[in-house]
Write a structure and sequence with these properties.
This protein has 294 residues and is an all-beta fold. It contains 1 helix and 26 strands.
């Protein structure tokens, strides 16, 4: 049997092509050159590790019971049983959470909820830490930080910061500066000095201070040696001594009250001309006062 030698130019090469455009194909009469394109278009599934320059590519948690729409710029980096809808929402570590609305973010949370109904959505809010955090439909620009107890914390106002920890808040170093007002609903203890630069108001409880004990009134120290009006009935249980004289009221008839709001008390004094008037329990009695030569 005779054999004929086939020359390469006599072979009809098949046509190679790449529908995805991911391969650059160069064909010659003697061979085929395949190069992976730098620009790949399409969906790709990798089994195993995906490395870039020898380093693993960071993955996202769009698997199992998690769900998010990446086409709407949503992303979940790590978590379980978390659903992210809406647009531009992100969770770094979230479990048992529902995130909707627009531009919200959650970090290390459990059972966090960002509501988002048509026409009224939670927007640009942040759950910084904790369990049981809720942002309502119309809440915008607020942040919540909470403990991991079973209690919950709802952001009721926009552009507000909420913090809730069962065992309190501890500021170990530095000062706490508040530009506007502070309100507290419970009692507290101040271990150091308290300085009030402005006016202070107390309701419901009395307070005794150094200024109160030394006669501080109306923003100035009261001059106890000057003129002073004392209102209201005062009871003196011991002897009151006067190093100088004291003035007694003028007698204005049997109805004189001598400084009391009811019938004059026994021993009330008044003056009428040169007569010293003394109330004896049922009537006034007068004692003539003689002049004293200087």
């Amino acid at each position: 049997m005779s054999f004929n030698k086939i020359q390469p130019e006599q072979v009809q090469m098949p046509i190679f092509f790449s529908d995805s455009g991911g391969l650059n194909i160069s064909q010659t009469d003697t061979g085929i050159q395949l190069n992976v394109s730098k620009n790949l278009t399409g969906n790709f599934t990798f089994t195993g590790d995906l490395l870039t320059n020898g380093k693993p590519v960071f993955g996202v948690a769009n698997t199992g019971d998690n769900f998010f729409l990446s086409n709407n710029h949503n992303v979940l980096f790590e978590g379980s049983n978390t659903q992210i809808r809406g647009t531009g929402n992100m969770a770094f570590k979230a479990s048992q959470s529902q995130i909707s609305g627009l531009g919200n973010a959650a970090f290390n949370v459990n059972t966090a909820t960002f509501l988002g109904n048509a026409g009224s959505v939670a927007e640009n809010n942040t759950a910084l830490h904790g369990r049981g955090i809720v942002f309502g439909n119309s809440i915008s620009g607020s942040a919540v930080m909470k403990d991991y107890t079973t209690s919950s914390q709802t952001a009721y106002d926009s552009h507000a910061f909420y913090s809730k920890f069962k065992n309190g808040h501890f500021f170990e170093a530095g000062g706490l500066f508040v530009q506007q007002s502070i309100s507290t609903k419970a009692s507290g203890v101040i271990s150091g000095n308290l300085k009030v630069l402005g006016s202070g108001f107390l309701t419901g409880q009395e307070i005794t201070t150094k200024h109160y004990l030394t006669g501080y009134a109306s923003g100035n120290y009261t001059n106890l040696f000057g003129d002073q009006t004392i209102g209201g009935e005062k009871t003196i249980s011991s002897t009151m001594r006067f190093n100088t004289g004291f003035a007694i009221p003028l007698w204005s008839g049997n109805a004189s009250q001598a400084g009391t709001n009811t019938a004059p008390a026994t021993g009330s004094l008044a003056i009428s001309g040169t007569t010293l008037c003394v109330y004896m329990g049922s009537a006034w009695r007068g004692v003539a006062i003689s002049g004293i030569a200087p």
